[in-house]
Amino acid sequence: MPVIQDLLENNRRWAQARASQDPDFFPRLSRQQAPEFLWIGCADSRVPANDIVGMDPGELFVHRNVANLVVPSDLNCLSVIQYAVEVLNVRHIIVCGHYGCGGVRAALEEGQLGLIDNWLRPIRLLSHAHRAQLNALSDLDARVDRLCELNVIAQARSVAGTTIVQNAWHRGQTLAVHGWIYSLHDGLIRDLGVDLRSVEELVVAERIAPA
Fold it and tell me: pLDDT digits over 27-42, tens only?
């Protein structure tokens, strides 16, 4: 198992390799941050945002938390969204969950884990709203995976419903919100068909398929 010193050595080797391949990489990176994408993902260590979409540092602005939740009381997440939209002027916000998410599974099983139960409450409420659909699935893993998808859809809509995104749309800023899900089994991302680009599109989406 790596120790702390190993991480520092790994960093030195990585920095040397990058500088060797592209001598201007770090000077260029230090001059500005200009990503077009904000990624809101799960804190799971198996889902490294930049790596799975093949992007370098500086190309993807990233926020991660347990089960990729976007809730109105989370000032950390909202601050990231505001900075991304109003300062960095990102053009796309991607909410990306992953199949087999431990947070989603915990919410579905409804056991008591402690403080995190409060954080996972929105997913528990979501599972209650879709109880019939989830119970119709054959096994627990299938129900977890479907709830992972439903959670991404709900959180993408939550992003679109923030005053930050709504105000950006009202002032004519080009901004789209997307919902994706990643599979740990094959490394592939699936587009869940959530592409919101205006207040009107959000209203229609919520009318057709309420969360």
Answer: 988 887 889 999 999 9
Q: Give the rounded distance of the alpha carbon of 124 from its chain centre.
A: 18
Strand, helix or coil at 186? coil
Q: How far is CA 125 from CA 49, 52, 162, 174, in A?
A: 27, 30, 20, 32
Q: What is the DSSP letter of 88?
A: S
DSSP state string for 99-159: TT-HHHHHHHHT---STHHHHTHHHHHHHHHTHHHHHTSSSHHHHHHHHHHHHHHHHHHHH
Cα dihedral value 136, 137, 139, 144, nearest 10: -110
Strand 189-196, strand 176-182: pairing: antiparallel
Half-sphere exposure of 147 (CA within 13 A, CB side): 34
Kindly list the catalytic residues: 42, 44, 46, 98, 101
The answer, yes or no, to whether residue 210 has pLDDT greater than 70, is: no
What is the enclosing helix (H) or strand (E) of 160?
A: helix 140-160
